[in-house]
Specification:
The structure is a single chain. The chain is mainly beta. Among the domains are: 170 residues, no CATH class; 169 residues, Immunoglobulin-like, CATH 2.60.40.420. It is 8% helix and 37% strand. It has eleven helices and 43 strands. The strands form nine sheets. Strands 5-4-7-8-1-2-3-6 form an eight-stranded antiparallel sheet. The protein is globular. The structure holds CU-O-CU linkage and copper (II) ion. CU-O-CU linkage (C2O) binds next to β15 and β42.
Length: 736
Amino acid sequence: MRRAVLVLSLALAASNPTPFTSPILPLTSDNDTPCVAAGTGPGPSRDLYCIDLDPIPALEGVTATFELNRVPSPFGVNVTRDGRQVYAPVLRVTGLPEPAAFSKGARVWVAWMATQQLSLTRKLGVVGNGRFALPTIDWPKFLILITAESGGAVAEPDGKVALRGFSPSSRMQPPDLSEFLYGSAPVSDPAAPGPVAAGADHALHAIAPPPGAATRWIHPPIPAGLAMMPAEMRLPFPKASPFLPLTARAPPVPDVKPREVVHLKDGDTLVLTAGPVRQTVRGHAFIGYGYNGQVPGPLIWASQRSTLHVRYRNRIEWPSTVHWHGVRLDNRFDGAEGLTQDAVPPGGDFDYTVRLPDAGLFWYHPHRRDDILRDLGLYGNLLVTPSHQELGPANREEVLMLDDLELADQGLVPYGAERPTNALMGRFGNVLLVNGRGSWSLDVSRGEVVRFLLTNVANARTFNVSFGGARIKLLGSDLSNFEREEWLESVVVAPAERYLVDVRFAAPGRVAIENRVLAIDHIFGRFFPQVDTLGIVRVQDRPARPDYGAAFGTTREHPGVIAGIDPVRKDFERPPDRSLVVRMEARGLPFVVERFLRIDSIYFHPVEWSGTMPMMNWNSTSSEVQWILEEPGSGRRNMDIRWEFKLGSLVKIRIANLRHTLHAMQHPIHFHGQRFLVLEQNGVRNTNLAWKDTFLLPAGGSADILLEVVNPGTWMAHCHISEHLESGMMLSFTAR
Ligand code: C2O
Ligand code: CU
């Protein structure tokens, strides 16, 4: 292959090729990784995570696969600070001849990664027949080549190409004729778009407040730089009445107050009132909801093994409950509407007794029409100490709740009164919020170590948070610290997950806390970077006192966590006891949406980081879209799944997120009332564990979790994307 390779000084080129890699595969068990046939139940998608390399005709009979393996990570996905997906590739080859027999003078086979245009190449290593663990890769789209070369030291491909294959992401292409045709086709509903007639759906209206007379549908905002198809812009309104709180008949509504910290002792009582509050975000005033007039709700501090009493007063127009997310409390106080209690009617009260067996960072939110109530401000943290055992010192702690809000020029985009809109992907906001505000800032001294306690309360968005270029020390997650502290360039927080990290601000100046992701332009089949500022840390030029720089520089083991996990390690290896697959079914979607989704299903990225098909997503409601957890053996689905587990048992559950569905995407999976470990994802064992109640399952991915069943009662497990939960994606299990 004689050609001039344009060596661009891009950051992509900076990583040096590893000269030689030995055919040793340290991390994968080789059982259920994407290129290898699944042995013990549903596994990861071969189509999304395995590339079959094609030999040139002269090499017929040579087989080669290039596996896009997961890199063990404390998160559901491993990405760079910019949100590029990182893989640990494994190449398997059989049948290659001696290089010289293929090409005169050749002495070695070399594997390369190249851009689709071959404008840039990167050497992956000298290979041959066998199995090779290659250096990690993080290019969004790429081509793999295997060439015959005169020596292993060549810097760029120079010899004959023997095998080649494109990354699955390369299948996303700029528009072809069919897409344009569908894009200009008329929408399936010949009637002019208009609001659904009020009262059209009596049964559902009976459980929803009457739609505010003054509320009209407005279109979701379109992300900058994205083109929409004409037919997309002409989609009818969603099949639901538009809802915003109290627009027509607003009595005086108090302005929202900042979150207060409430210290509660064993036996104390807190009165928690949900009510309307006036909020202003980016200059737009709207009426939302708050607990005790605050957004976020009060930050409750309590001690491990104490018991709190919470008198909940529902003063909003929706029936609601309070769910204590992650807390292993008495079943009857779990707040799971329809399972552990009836919803508290507007004006009603309910007394919760919240037992706190675990230390950690928890949160509370409604468990009914959460897509509206939580999005409008009903969420708060519960911090149970000592959660910081075994951790080094920090100068301060910041408890941040990450969220997003969908604000158009005309104001807040209304919600579906009878059922949620955005049932496809969940409601993505275009304005990112920290603690309910569109702007957040903090002043610190030079060298300060700040401990951030992060909770993602968004309906659908997964965040990839970084702090300028500062390195981040990972400490803990939902119900415990990790076995070992480790360094990160960013923190991936899926909806409902919590992470505990330390960051040291070494140099004076302004540091932006950012969400950096790769978004997908579904029409043009390309990735593009999206960067949003969540907040600013102003580092003053005065030294921090005390200076914890030395302690920050070391990472610790947490022997308590390790010892706590030790008794269950014997259960890591055995086959799963239960399995689930995730799929989606749709009926009655507009023609253009259906056709477009079919075309778009050529590729699914592990995580959809951003809402880049806002019109089609908005248009879909839970009456067209059903999200399904299905048990492969019994064929049971969602709430027809009623698992029975023995108290004191450990249950290994395999969950596979099927790729062959109209729209596959990531799901944050949450189990109520218990805790679990994420043992492996896509067949790759996790090497640093923490007790969790929610984890992220990427598109086409599979995971094995080990659920510790110790808390009696009937509990729920579900996807924490609010609109997926409302579209059916939940099951129940009983522990007795
Ligand atoms: Cu955070 Cu079932 O919920
Ligand atoms: Cu989901």
